[in-house]
Task: inverse folding
């Protein structure tokens, strides 16, 4: 099988990889928010890994938007601060999903917080099945 540029596909060193991205990584030099150039480069790198046939799961943080622990330390209710952090994580996941799909990488966003209009509920077996369905 060949890659998108027609070159022979090298053997994959790993079957399945979990990539953890901090939210701060998406901000780049800005220090906060989402830097489109940075997220595009991340998506291209992920796309290359997927072309090798690697089953790739991504966990992403939300610290570029809000830091729940910091808000809690400033007096905010801890549960509310944590929910805000989880929402920031979903914002980042949707931004990364958009960039990945522009690189022709099929994606699914899953979250433990119910948001049926934008993400699937996280169910471990479902996540594994999604990885397996895209196996080369």
Result:
């Amino acid at each position: 099988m060949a890659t998108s540029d027609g070159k022979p596909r090298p053997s994959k060193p790993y079957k399945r990889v979990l990539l953890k991205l901090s939210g701060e990584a998406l901000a780049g030099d800005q220090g906060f928010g989402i830097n489109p150039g940075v997220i595009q480069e991340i998506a291209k790198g992920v796309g290359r890994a997927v072309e090798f046939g690697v089953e790739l799961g991504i966990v992403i943080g939300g610290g570029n938007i809000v830091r729940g622990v910091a808000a809690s330390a400033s007096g905010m209710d801890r549960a509310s601060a944590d929910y805000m952090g989880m929402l920031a994580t979903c914002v980042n996941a949707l931004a990364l999903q958009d960039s990945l799909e522009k690189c022709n990488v099929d994606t699914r966003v899953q979250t433990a917080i119910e948001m049926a209009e934008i993400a699937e509920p996280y169910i471990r077996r479902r996540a594994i099945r999604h990885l397996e369905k895209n196996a080369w």
Q: What stands out?
A: The first helix runs from residue 23 to 27. Strands lie at 16-21, 55-60, 110-111, 120-121. DSSP finds five helices and four strands in the chain. The two ends are 9 Å apart (CA to CA).
